[in-house]
Amino acid sequence: MLPQLAVLAKILCLLMVVMCGAVPAMVRSVSLYSTCSSGNVTVIGRAVKAVGRDDNNAPFQKLTTQSEDFSGKLYIFAEKSQRYICFNKRWKLVGLPKKQKSPMCQFYEVYNGSYLRYRSVADGVHYLGFNKWGKPMRNPNGRQECFNFIKYNPHFDIKHHNSLVTSNMATEPRLVVRKPALIRAPKKFLPSSDGGRETHRHRHNRWKIREDEVSPRRRHESRLLEANKY
Ligand SMILES: *[C@@H]1O[C@H](CO)[C@@H](O)[C@H](O)[C@H]1NC(C)=O
Ligand SMILES: *[C@@H]1O[C@H](CO)[C@@H](O)[C@H](O)[C@H]1NC(C)=O
């Protein structure tokens, strides 16, 4: 299908959904990075932990957040394992199949500074959290940063992003989390002209580069915020 047609079809679909108020369910694909364990939330069968990504566990880090209405209550679903992240009766985090879905598997997504937290709907004292070894937190009064997360969209398409940036879009898509260098790189390869103009351009570029050296940090921070907003 032509890309334009595909876009039109999507818009039509969206319009129909909005008009009928048919499907309140929102499903979003994410990875959750636990700041305390420096790993992503990983659900393998019943086990829920936060570990670094590798080839084997990457599919188990693919999560979706699902809401059934506009109450703000979310389920966190692990696609590969087909399990929901839930608390058990002793407030330990476990992966449970759909038939055991309950309010113990529902969370409110709240901000803490620029980080996200997932507070249990069943009991607001409890939050999703992982210690520095990537094990689920048992003590809700434990180290506070262990309850903080950064949300990534692993299916973000960098080519699409670049095409948006180069077509001079003023605002960036909100899901950006990676590799700002890729976007700026082409600047260095500007075709150079001759003579006195070249020295001018050099000076100009040097200034530009220095400017870029200063900003990535700030950029990174704002990116974190942007990522979290999503
Ligand atoms: C977490 O997941 C994101 C998105 O898939 C990925 O970019 C990042 O490298 C992962 N981080 C770790 C520590 O596994
Ligand atoms: C936010 O974080 C601080 C310190 O980490 C903690 O004391 C506070 O209770 C948190 N707030 C919420 C709403 O979680």
From TrEMBL:
Matches recorded under SUPFAM superfamilies: Cytokine
Keywords associated with the record: Signal
Pfam family, one: FGF
Segment forming the signal sequence: 1-20
GO molecular function, one term: growth factor activity
Highest taxon, organism lineage: Eukaryota
InterPro entries the UniProt entry points to: Fibroblast_GF_fam, IL1/FGF
Family listed: Belongs to the heparin-binding growth factors family.
Name of protein: Fibroblast growth factor 17 isoform X3
